[in-house]
Specification:
It contains 11 helices and 11 strands. The chain is α/β, with parallel strands linked by helices and about 350 residues long. It is globular, with a radius of gyration of 22 Å.
Length: about 350
Amino acid sequence: MTNQDAHDAHDTRDTGAAAGSDTPVGATARDEDGHGAHTEPDSDGAQAGAGMTIDAAGVPEAAIPELVIISGMSGAGRSTAAKCLEDLGWFVVDNLPPALIPTMVELGARSQGNVARIAVVVDVRGRRFFDNLRESLADLAAKHVTRRIVFLESSDDALVRRFEGVRRPHPLQGDGRIVDGIAAERELLRELRGDADLVIDTSSLNVHELRAKMDAQFAGEEEPELRATVMSFGFKYGLPVDADLVVDMRFLPNPHWVPELRPFSGLNEEVAAYVFNQPGAKEFLDRYAELLRLIAAGYRREGKRYVTIAVGCTGGKHRSVAMSEKLAARLAAEGVETVVVHRDMGRE
């Protein structure tokens, strides 16, 4: 599998609703053993406990579970992201109506520590339920529940390709085209995307690369102060939409024009030596690493936990790859948990 075509056009068949349905049939909760508990709606479309809110009376604050809300574009990778958290021991609830999120957190708080981390997948397939998300988020904030929103993004071209690959309609396209459904979904999700703590663009990621990104953000018993993704890319393939910071390595001579170096990437020692022997390369590394140290300190003060640093050159094969590896090493030396992704290496 060379692209994420499989991994989430799978979102169009997430548990609980048929593609194109306005309301979910139910919600599937998956425990650490992978077993599902299915809940059915009552005759009015509501579910038992829908009116419950988090009541902390008698429940120690430390018992309130950690909450992650996974959302984003249909076909962008929600199912894969949820499966990754499930594999990390999270209690995952797929396609839960947003009004029931506070109820789920309360049940976790009363589980005597057995459900310490909950991940909830919400999307726009059940539009009537999705309208309640803002109210649920406000309720969680009022109850001082720590929550994070992970938003899965992807380009229109990638989404169309994935839906066409599995021959499924977009859940919101109705009688229109796939692109019409995508446009409608982007508009519905615009505000939620702006509130997201972590945005992951999966346009050029395969299943394993997306899982690596999720692992980098959520694996481990103790959460580090700041996690960074250093991503090399080629400008000719477009800017990464999930980048927080972008730097351009095209001010350095291109190893592509050196015949003996052209076949190799920036991971090759000879290519890296060529790049860093150029005037300005080492100075840039030193100064940008110092700038990142300053930015990282500010991010920590503001409570920002994730940062994506995009390092570009023409094709994303030589200069950006070599510089990304060095920058990642500098960040790791500063105590920042860092993962390196070479987005376009091998595309030429």
